[in-house]
Design a protein that fits this description.
Length: 109
C-alpha cells in the first residue's frame, strides 16, 4: 500500500474543470488532474432527481493532502457540495509514484 490516492470530483463545465485542475496543480495540492469530458450524471439533489452533463476530474495526490484538496475544491468550485471521493493507490510504477511525491512535496496539509 502506498500513501498515494486518486480523488474523483466533477465539474459542470469544461471551463470550470480546467480552472479547478490548474489550481490544484499550481498549488501543489495535486501532481496531475485528468479531465474526462462527456459524463452524464443522474442524482438526487434537494428531493428531486436531477440530470446533468459533467466533466470528471481524476486527481492524483497523497493521502496527507486530502484535507488540502478539500479546502482548495471548496475555494474554487461552483458546486455547493463538490464531489470528493478518495481511493487508495495500492501499487504503481515506482518512478510515477515518486513523481507524485516530487510534485506535491512542497504542499503542506
Amino acid at each position: 500500500m502506498t500513501d498515494k490516492i486518486l480523488i474523483f470530483s466533477s465539474c459542470g463545465s469544461a471551463e470550470e474543470a480546467e480552472r479547478v485542475a490548474k489550481h490544484l496543480v499550481e498549488t501543489h495540492a495535486a501532481a496531475c488532474v485528468n479531465i474526462i469530458p462527456g459524463v452524464r450524471s443522474i442524482y438526487r439533489w434537494k428531493g428531486a432527481v436531477e440530470e446533468a452533463g459533467e466533466w470528471t476530474l481524476l486527481i492524483k495526490t497523497r493521502r496527507p493532502l486530502v484535507a488540502r484538496v478539500e479546502r482548495e475544491l471548496r475555494r474554487v468550485h461552483s458546486y455547493e457540495v463538490p464531489e470528493l471521493i478518495a481511493l487508495p493507490i495500492v501499487a504503481g510504477l515506482e518512478s510515477y509514484l515518486q513523481w507524485i511525491d516530487d510534485e506535491t512535496g512542497n504542499a503542506g496539509p
